Amino acid sequence: MDSFDDFDPFTPEVIADPYPSYQRLAKSGPVNWLPMRDMWIVTGYDSVTEVLREPTVFSSAKGYAALAAGALNRDGTSARSVFDVDVASLSMLISTDPPNHTRIRRLLSRTFTPRAVGALEPRLREVCAGLVNEAVERASGAEADLVQDLSITFPVTVIAEMLDIPLSRRDEFRSWSDAMSGVLSGDATLEEAEVAGAEIFMFMSEMIALRRAKPGDDLLSKMVIGNPEGDPDSLTTDDMVLIGILLLIAGNETTTNLISNMAAALAAHPDQAARVWADPGLLPAVIEETLRWDSPVQGMLRGAMVDTRIGDVEIPAKSIVMTCLAAANRDPAHYPAAEQFDIDRKVNDHLAFGNGIHFCLGASVARLEARMVFETLIEAGVGLTPLEGATRTSNFMLRGFSRLPVIYSRLASA
Ligand code: HEM
């Protein structure tokens, strides 16, 4: 194993383009020790899968507590020193372990069904067409920013529609979500995230109380109806508030980044973009290849509950382990010519949505949203001409763009 004594993956230089670093790590083996961070980093496809499929050995509760305590912050907090930090307000689905996770996920799956997602399609199509039209009219041939116009606006509108929460508070959701995800990278302080957390908790408690009084047809109402108060086999009110918050946050920045990363990947590969504009039926393949090649969630943390091994590397109990999904998705042992963006690859096993018991519950919503944005542009005869000045976000965990300048060009055949 090579030594990474001087290597910190969470510096702005690495975050700007992490892929050469993943290659350097992979050359030394699928599992490496990062002394500067006091944590293990796992980059091999098989090894990442192994960790994600052992939720009782590699705890999400410990991993997310370490994240919330600043394990990835740029000040170089030691990961192991935060292993035992208890962040009580974090007991959301994503940061719970079995058996609690099993109970909540089972109960939530009653309402968050593929059918419920499919039923949203006509309304979402209408919303998306409105946003595309508005963006193209507003720009009227001049430079525009795809991130502000579509990547941010559409996902936040979709989740507001799904939960039937007032769109007038869209900017607030976005700022709560930014503060809570920003703490993962040090872009927001723990205090800012705590204030945002308290505000969003109050807001969501109010929404659940309103649905109890007068249920509608939205996801929160379905959750309330399916989980009557007093039934021991029901989600509690607190469970539902935390699920509402998780849905609001988990689907926002991630899907924003998928839409932006996809636009940027196509801009960098104009031949493939031309094929997609000629045949939107290729969009599902583009979405999967983008998720693999430039994963919106680069990695996640887990905490080792016991002395264990990953492959032939010994991992002591209380170690923090970063499972690097984005590196696994470019593992050359798993994907031939892994560094190349290739929409003909037919990839169906990338790890961008995780693996095992925490596999992303919103994967079908995210895929639907990304497809809809590009389908709507193509059907409206709008092309995207990329301009100089694309700016990456500075968050290691969530890879995307803060600015993506484009010109919306009206295509001749439209
Ligand atoms: C491109 C967009 C998205 C990406 C890349 C993504 C990625 C992920 C990943 C990697 C996980 C696993 C986390 C872990 O194992 O620690 C996850 C979990 C989750 N995601 Fe997503 N996600 C996306 C969109 C969404 C959307 C749109 C929603 C909801 C509407 C959503 C809701 C969730 C929930 C509730 C979980 C927790 C599941 C559990 O712990 O059992 N995600 N997501």
Could you please describe the fold and organization of this structure?
By secondary structure, the chain is of the alpha+beta class. It is 48% helix and 10% strand. The protein has 18 helices and 12 strands. The protein has helices spanning 12-16, 19-28, 45-52, 60-68, 100-109, 114-119, 121-139, 146-151, 153-163, 170-182, 190-213, 219-226, 237-250, 253-268, 270-278, 283-293, 325-328, 363-379, and strands at 31-34, 39-42, 58-59, 144-145, 300-304, 308-310, 313-315, 320-323, 382-386, 391-392, 401-403, 405-410. The protein has a 5-stranded mixed β-sheet with strand order 1-2-8-5-3, sandwiched between helices. Helix 10 crosses helix 11 (190-213). The radius of gyration is 21 Å and the shape is globular. The mean pLDDT is 89. The site of protoporphyrin IX containing FE has 24 residues, from helix 13, helix 14 and helix 18.
- The strand line-up of the biggest sheet is 1-2-8-5-3
For the biggest sheet, the summary is: 5 strands, mixed
Mean pLDDT: 89
User: Total number of helical segments?
Assistant: 18
* Number of DSSP E strands: 12
What's the end-to-end separation, in Å? 57 Å
- Helices and strands: which structural class? alpha+beta
Determine Rg (CA atoms, Å): 21 Å
**Secondary structure: helix percent:** 40-55%
What form results from the Cα inertia axes?
globular
Poorly predicted runs are none
Bound molecules: protoporphyrin IX containing FE
Order of helices and strands: HHEEHEHHHHEHHHHHHHHHEEEEHHEEEE
Sheet-strand content, in percent, reads: 5-15%
